[in-house]
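Q: I'm building a small set of examples for a reading group on sequence design. Run inverse folding on the following structure and report the sequence directly after it, with nothing in between.
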């Protein structure tokens, strides 16, 4: 393994032709329908993948993007605010059918960029080829499902309600300017699971790609420009302090859609001068626990815990980040886990069947090593051969046992390839862990006794937002609600929920009089309003 790690990075000539990459010089940003040419400072982007050169290992240069300042950020904000025009703009007053048409045009353009974007995803964040393709395809599916969900929502809203002598038509209306920021681990999918619903419901968008994962969005700039009216989608790049703080402080951001840390979310929310006006949709930290009961079917449980904790190197908010295993089966569980872990392949993202790839966050190997050392100093051992060894950005997963509350890894979200294991005797131990945790996203229970599982489900559903039985934690299917309690989330996302969080129920109502009925009837019959209308899309 050590030899493999030493030789993990190759020479440029050994990279398959279809995966070679030329620098992407993104020298513009989208504002008010123009791709504005940037002549200021740029951020250089380097891949987490090193390439062997004559002078040693060098991180592959991927390109550059504009490092905008407060001035441009505020200009871009003006574009989004003008396009919304207090709800009078073309986009917020478009019919649902017109907005769907624009999104469909965008999807058609986006599909043409699949191979390019998948390749950039591999180079920028080192998702395996299979997972990068999955992220792209899942995003397309999400958009298509969103269109279908909107059609259904619109069909249901196209009728009038008569209640207690009042006639009403209730629809969902947009909120204003939405600032969308996604995370590096799903830079496309998670950004678009907020951007697309916010957009299709009539809001205008300020979109800042995550710090790692900017360039993969470059091929979409033209598609955004060509598919939507001016100022409806705008992009910004740069340091959060410089470009995001002024936006929030301006008070003109109506919705903050942010997936990242609660620390940053809190800072951003506090910057808004009227916090009561700001609506937030947040996906934050999680420390999902796996609870392995005494009677768990070990072969399948180990497999599920392995993918649950280590797929994409553990860099999923939904990853299993700590395992509580009953003391009677702990030895067998660990030995099977080590065996199964040995089957994971380590390498570059484009290599066949690879699982363990370079980590994109700067200083991540050092951070993980620090967590391991802290655990060792407090009594844990690395249980698997070569666990925790690394070469630059490639870090071989470590199984840590016995883990206790004295260790940082017991509390901190590692967001990386460390699997901490705690042995328990009494089921109250993992239940108390979940209860005392500042996070409340999901949990997984592994076992066979339906009575015992039922006894655990009931206290857990009031601590987290999804309890998985004999299955890893995960977001999908995307029609299921995705959220969390405590410091893990604010607002619920799913294909249909997302349409709701970026809108507000608004109605037109009138007392049931002959005059009012005639007014409504004429407006509807002569199609004088897009809101007050019985039209629907099949
Ligand atoms: O990083 C958090 C993602 O929403 C997790 O999604 O469970 O489909 O990997 P996933």
């Amino acid at each position: 393994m050590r030899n493999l790690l030493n030789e993990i990075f190759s020479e440029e000539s050994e990279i398959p032709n279809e995966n070679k990459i030329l620098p992407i010089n993104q020298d513009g940003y989208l504002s008010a329908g123009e791709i504005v040419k940037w002549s200021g400072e740029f951020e250089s982007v380097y891949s987490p993948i090193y390439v062997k050169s004559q002078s040693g290992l060098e991180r592959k240069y991927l390109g550059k993007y504009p490092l905008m300042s407060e001035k441009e950020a505020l200009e871009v904000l003006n574009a989004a605010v003008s396009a919304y025009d207090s709800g009078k703009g073309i986009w917020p007053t478009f019919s649902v059918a017109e907005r769907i048409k624009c999104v469909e045009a965008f999807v058609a353009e986006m599909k043409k960029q699949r191979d390019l974007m998948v390749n950039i995803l591999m180079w920028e964040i080192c998702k395996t080829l299979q997972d990068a393709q999955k992220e792209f395809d899942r995003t397309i599916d999400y958009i298509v499902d969103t269109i279908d969900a909107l059609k259904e929502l619109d069909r249901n809203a196209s009728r009038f309600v008569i209640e207690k002598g009042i006639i009403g038509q209730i629809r969902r209306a947009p909120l204003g300017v939405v600032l969308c920021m996604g995370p590096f681990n799903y830079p496309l999918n998670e950004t678009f699971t907020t951007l697309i619903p916010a957009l299709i419901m009539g809001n205008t968008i300020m979109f800042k790609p995550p710090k790692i994962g900017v360039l993969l969005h470059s091929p979409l700039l033209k598609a955004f420009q060509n598919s939507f009216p001016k100022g409806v989608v705008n992009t910004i790049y740069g340091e959060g302090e410089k470009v995001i703080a002024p936006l929030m402080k301006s008070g003109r951001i109506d919705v903050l859609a942010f997936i990242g840390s609660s620390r940053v979310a809190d800072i951003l929310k506090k910057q808004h001068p009227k916090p009561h006006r700001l609506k937030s949709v947040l996906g934050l930290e999680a420390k999902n626990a796996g609870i392995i009961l005494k009677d768990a079917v070990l072969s399948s449980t180990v497999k599920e815990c392995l993918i649950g904790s280590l797929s994409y190197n553990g860099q999923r908010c939904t990853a299993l980040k700590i395992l509580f295993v009953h003391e009677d089966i702990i030895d067998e569980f660990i030995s099977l886990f080590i065996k199964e872990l040995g089957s994971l392949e380590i390498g570059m993202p484009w290599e066949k069947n690879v699982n363990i790839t370079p980590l994109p966050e700067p200083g991540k190997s050092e951070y993980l090593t620090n967590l391991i050392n802290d655990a060792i100093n407090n009594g844990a051992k690395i249980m698997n051969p070569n666990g925790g060894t690394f070469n630059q950005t490639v870090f071989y997963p470590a199984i840590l046992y016995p883990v206790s509350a004295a260790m940082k890894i017991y509390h901190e979200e590692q967001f990386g390839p460390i699997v901490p294991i705690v042995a328990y005797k009494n089921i109250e131990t993992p239940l108390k862990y979940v209860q005392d945790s500042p996070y409340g996203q999901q949990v997984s229970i592994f076992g066979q006794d339906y009575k015992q599982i039922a006894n655990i489900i009931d206290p857990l559903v009031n601590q987290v937002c999804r309890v998985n039985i004999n299955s890893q934690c995960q977001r999908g299917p995307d029609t299921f609600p995705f959220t969390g309690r405590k410091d893990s989330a604010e607002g619920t996302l799913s294909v249909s929920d997302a349409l709701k969080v970026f809108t507000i129920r608004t109605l037109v109502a009138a007392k049931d009089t002959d005059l009012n009925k005639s007014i409504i009837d004429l407006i509807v019959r002569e199609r004088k309003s897009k809101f007050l209308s019985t039209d629907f899309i099949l």
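The mean pLDDT is 97.
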